[in-house]
Structure of Signal recognition particle receptor FtsY:
Amino acid sequence: MFSFFKKKPDLPNAAETAPAAEAAQAPVPATPAGPGPQDTPAAAAGTSWWRKPFGAKDAKPEPATSSVTQNFVAAPEPTAKPETENARQSWMERLKAGLRKTGSSIATVFTGTQINDALYEELEDALLMADTGVKATQHLLNDLKRRVKETKTTEPAAVKALLADALADLLLPLEKPLTIGEHVPTVIMVAGVNGAGKTTSIGKLTKHLADEGQTVLLAAADTFRAAAREQLGVWANRNTVEIISQEGGDPAAVSFDAVSAGKARKKDVVLVDTAGRLPTQLHLMEELKKIKRVVAKAEGSAPHEVLLVIDGNTGQNALAQVRAFDDALQLTGLIVTKLDGTAKGGVLAAIAQERPIPVYFIGVGEKIEDLETFSAREFAQALLS
Ligand SMILES: Nc1nc2c(ncn2[C@@H]2O[C@H](COP(=O)(O)OP(=O)(O)OP(=O)(O)O)[C@@H](O)[C@H]2O)c(=O)[nH]1
């Protein structure tokens, strides 16, 4: 299913080659970014970051450091395999470290000698404390009891492994790769509350896309906060991609201009960074809906992805955000950041149970390599290791 690649000619860097006529057509002048330093030697995740739907035989060669996940779209070069495995292994270590706070309180439940009601009660408390939510906790407990019975398990330590299986199954519907290339450009709108990690995640995503030769155009649709535009500009510079940015003005207009420019310049991806807002700020939620509508005016099929970035550290509050933003925007995917050091990593189970929107990426730190594709099995294993 994932072995198809988009047929894409090798275009030179668009920042250097955007035809003047096309550039002139764009309503807002783009700021071509100069070459900047690369943060890491190569993308830690490679092509597994997204799926390219067309023309497997015309696929570009895999970068040597592509990682392996169930989302992987093509067999890596044989020589690349050890590095690939190393990259994913190192990610697993960071994920484990990040989830330790959540996992350790659950793990202590299994240190006893007996499987009895007290164990299940303790587990229920631990799952609720990890912000797994009542419904997902109940689902996991019932599923676990069934597994224990079926396998005739008698050791509490073995129950932990069964819980990891139950959790992986619950999380599986969240595992889905981001598709790039079905539309040119693929327009991705990114929303979230203030400080959730939107701009940082867009920057990391841009780097991974640029590293794979995808042409990206960034839209700084946060027209209120100068620092937000500057932050996005830094990412644009680092990755030598273009940015459409405007001081003040209407964020929907900036988004419209960016999508129009992205079409005219045949960019592969347009990423729209919106200002942070709370779901309770109804006028700002209306503004988001307007951005989405106006993007669709610039390109009928867009936005192709509407992503919500949530801070994993906010637990059940993050679930409330998912519900509210989904109701307003019909989300297509999530990015869950700041799972490092949180005791509330159970929120992914709550999302899977109550609003199963695909989790494209999860973040466990501020560095580029700290954002990766989501794998249900990896997550469950890292949490309960
Ligand atoms: N520990 C940790 N910090 C992160 C992670 N992702 C982002 N951050 C940090 O969170 C802070 C806020 O990130 P931004 O990307 O500015 O958040 P934003 O959602 O764009 O913020 P606004 O534009 O104000 O709404 C920054 O200091 C990031 O470095 C993560 O996975 N872990």
